[in-house]
Write a structure and sequence with these properties.
By secondary structure, the protein is α/β, with parallel strands linked by helices. It is built from 11 helices and 13 strands. Helices cover 28% and strands 23% of the residues. The chain binds zinc ion (ZN).
């Protein structure tokens, strides 16, 4: 039988079978994925083959095969420095919630997030939230930001969860897919999730403060079915995960607008810095590439990656950030 892992608690995995029932499963044998040394063999989102074990009072299952992943996200294991912990697998879309003022979301933060998503092979969508709160200046800023990313080819949505604006468009992008939501603390994830699915109460809140102290809190990702044929993966307590290790030459490959041009650079190993006849720098001078993007690129190239660890996928818990307001 084939199913999808909805939850993992270390030794038990909750698998939803193709017929829609949930079965608690264990793993049989050792699972080794090519190229990954991970502390957990199976993660939420994995597609697995399992068989039922009806000998006990409660029907349980045994997972004996894992299907190839389309992608997966990891963080470095705290204690075993060379091992990865796989947080989730087979994610179709990651939605980054962006607010202009409250809190401010910077170009640099968005760029780094997008680079991570590109590196993981996950489609990222920018969701400009709280658009009902923008004054004239911040509206200009929001529209400019949106313009920058739309030009590159990223989907952008304008949403107000409190006024239910843009919610249907967001749902459209989630139908039939597995999604994750991310963004700074306070961008309104819980209000948004409530707007999408009022009955869904993610068990989230308490962990965030603890996880700021250190990463010893063990928490587990979980997948939820939504009523409109969509699924989301919530990742409680995960405060950032390590950036994929990238060679300098790889980085521009994760900036789609640079990637398109790099064949036109004189040197095929061009880093788009001081090299002559660089198509990226030429496009930059012609305002065809945003300066903010190039600045972030240079910073990543220099190895300034502190934000990856602290901010990307900063998971302040979907439920906690908005409850105070209501
Ligand atoms: Zn170049």
């Amino acid at each position: 039988m084939t199913g999808t892992v909805y939850k993992s608690t270390g030794s038990w995995y909750t698998v939803k079978g193709s017929e829609g029932t949930f079965i608690e499963c264990r793993i049989k044998g050792k699972f080794r994925m090519k190229g990954i040394k991970s502390t957990n063999p199976i993660a939420v989102g994995d597609h697995v083959d399992y068989e039922l074990d009806e000998s006990s009072d409660k029907i349980t299952g045994t997972i004996h095969n894992i299907h190839e992943r389309s992608n997966y996200i990891v963080r470095k294991s705290v204690n075993l420095s060379h091992q990865m912990h796989i947080i989730a697998a087979n994610i179709d879309r990651v939605f980054l919630l962006v607010t202009i003022n409250n809190p401010p979301t910077t170009f640099s933060f968005i760029d780094r997030f997008l680079v991570t998503a590109e590196a993981y092979g996950i489609e990222a969508v920018l969701v400009f939230n709280k658009i009902d709160t923008l004054d004239e200046n911040s509206l200009d800023e929001q529209l400019y930001m949106q313009h920058v990313y739309q030009e590159i080819g990223y989907k952008c949505l304008r949403v107000s969860s409190t006024q239910m604006k843009g919610i249907e468009d967001l749902k459209q992008l989630m139908v039939g897919k597995v999604s994750m939501f991310s963004g700074h603390s306070g961008v309104g994830k819980s209000t948004l999730v409530n707007a999408l699915e009022p009955s869904l109460h993610l068990k989230t809140t308490e962990i965030s403060e603890q996880s700021k102290q250190g990463q010893h809190t063990t928490t587990f990702a979980e997948m939820y079915d939504l009523s409109f044929d969509a699924r989301i993966i919530d990742t409680p307590g995960i405060k950032g995960f390590g950036m994929v290790n990238m060679e300098p030459s790889e980085i521009s490959g994760y900036f789609p607008e640079f990637f398109k041009l790099q064949d036109q650079c004189k040197f095929n190993n061009c880093l788009h810095k001081e090299e002559p006849h660089c198509a990226v720098k030429k496009a930059l001078e012609n305002d065809e590439i945003a300066w903010s993007r190039y600045q972030t690129y240079l910073k990543i190239l220099e190895g300034d990656d502190e934000h990856y660890r602290t901010d990307i996928y900063n998971d302040d818990r979907i439920a906690s950030d908005e409850t105070r307001k209501s």
